[in-house]
Write a structure and sequence with these properties.
MetI-like fold; elongated; 153 residues; 79% helix; mainly alpha
Length: 153
Amino acid sequence: MLGTLAAIAVARYRFFGREAISFAVILPIALPGIVTGWRCRRRSSTCSARWARPSVLTTIIVGHATFCVVVVYNNVIARMRRTAGSLDEASADLGADNWQTFRYVMLPQMRTALLAGALLAFALSFDEVIVTNFTSGAQQTLPIWIFAQLSNA
């Protein structure tokens, strides 16, 4: 959802800081997995007494979401750039509101990009053993189990 919403905002609207948001969304893919895992681990261990310490599952989800959002964002923004903006304008001229335009015009055009982004993010999530290893603590998650099985074979 975050990658899709960011891609729609960057591709269709002009606003101050648009390039900075695009850079901030794409930046985690350039960082090595060890940096992301270390930062999530450090963040979860240094929470102050005012806040509840995040659970291991929350930390793993945040760690994986940082790079999965990038994959979806790149797929959706590429599709949005190839799609003509005149379709949205034609929908508005015919009396459709923003929700109807999204549902009947934009979503059918983005459907394959969303599916490809979701499948790539799912596969990439299994590949990020380093992030999972740093953030999981003593729990054994599926990527760690798969890595252990591969190293035993």
